[in-house]
Fold these 2 entries.
Entry 1:
Amino acid sequence: MSAPQRDDLSVDQQLAMTTAATRLATRFGGVFSVETIDRFLVSSYDEFAGRATIPNFLPLLAERFARQRLEALAKVEGKTHDGRPVVLFLCVHNTGRSQMALGFLQHHAGESVVGWSGGSRPGEAIEAGAVAVMAERGIDIAQEYPKPWTDEIVRAADVVITMGCGDACPIFPGKRYEEWELADPADLELDGVRAVRDDIERRVRRLLDSLGVAAA
């Protein structure tokens, strides 16, 4: 299988995109057409191309985001769903609060819940303070990356947690929405970020309890 050729990619990037397309086709073969997979991969690449600080990582980011979007679309279209609740955390830049919340959700719920995050205006990198205070709890969010949300991702979510994105947050009927009022860690010293972190963990634990999921 070959990914669509693009004039703006280096030889190494094009090879990486082709490899990504092959992996996605293996994962979603029989669920989506090759054309759909390619379209999602290319549009995911375009989401990051204008703000990526390390261009060589773009194909990997595109593949990860396309995989998430295709998983969401498969659920929305009823092509696959394993019964696990899907929780989506949304904030403005997807660099602090929503990433910490996702980290705690994955840490405490494991494979019992599907967790995603996104931002209305995604930043360039995860905030160093958020990475540091989460590492203090043994949770590594340094490999995460700021990303937008898309319609299929929001539509696939069962619970949407918003954190300060206001009117930019998407509203779809039939979803459970919660607004978590939390200070933006970007504006705080490290002790303040720790306080936000601890507040987020308490809220995630309560959320899991409401979903009937035992927190580790």
Note: The first strand starts at residue 86 and ends at 91.
Entry 2:
Amino acid sequence: MNEKGLEREEIISVLNKSKSEDLKYNRVLSSMCTYPHEIAIHAHMQFMESNMGDFGLFRGTYDLEVSVLRSLGELLHHPEVSGYMTTGGTESNIQAIRSMRNIFQRKDKCHKPNLVVPDSAHFSFDKVSDILDIELRKATLDKDLKVSIDSVRSLIDDNTIGMVAIAGSTEFGQVDQIDILSDIALENNIFLHVDAAFGGYVLPFLEEQHDFDFKLPGVTSIAIDPHKMGLSTIPAGVLLFRDPGQLESLRADTPYLTVSTQYTLTGTRSGAAVAATYAVMNFLGKEGYRKIVADCMEATYYLLDRLAEIGIYPLIEPVMNVVALDIPKADLIRSTLAKDFNWQVSITQNPHGLRLVIMPHVTIEMIDSFVQDLRTVLETI
């Protein structure tokens, strides 16, 4: 920090230069985030100073959060849901499993708890294991890249506190057989957390219906991210609990604030993200989200048709707007696309392939340009 501050114009110049060096979304086919909706940006700016860590000072913003939770609870078939807005899927996943662990420990269990997750689970669950000192047991996937039910059953024992199911896996966009996992959770009296950080704003608006939410009685918590397909601003996640006791297990006393307790992982929380989420959800409504999802799926199928013209096919038929391609030398192709054409794509690990996410910023023109560049790369490697 300088002794004397810089002129405003100099700061703006530095900011503009830094912004210009960021990659624009029109070359990004790997991200599960996109440009936020205009009304979300407006709301975010209006509520920049609101701190939900001490929401007694910001009761209006708190009321917006309550409204967001109620709306998502209704969407996910449990209007009486408990929870709060987080920074995103990672925090939501940590807190969901922390709640499981806290309740497990109160039952006087003396052995180290374990958690059963799919091999396709987000890397945040590895963080969960490290932070909470929970053994992570990874179940294998079946031929459709869903978690193997037999593998899950084989990993459950007396110290299993819960399971994780994925509704829109990060790599493949696949949805586990959550109806069966719900039954297993009830049979074993354990928790079932659904990571729907991406799929939560997609699955309810698809023509084909998928059972993944609180409609299933064994589902005890859900993570869903408004800053992905919800088109809110970053950071905006939501953690939802079926039972208020799960949220209560996260309670911490806060005697010096205007509110006496917190249930959150972070202290300071963004009221701006709360307002942005409220604004965009109420502006778009279900009808608006159905159109956004339909447009993304139309672009996804168009991409598949164009890729078929050059002999490239998906590892699985896409469930949502995530495409994993069965393509050799995926690492080399990815790096060449980035170096020679500035395209940002990603790879899947097991099975190995190229991964594309068809977000609302992805246009037909982008797809045509990408396929042409991919064809060129394939012809030269």
Note: The two ends are 48 Å apart (CA to CA).
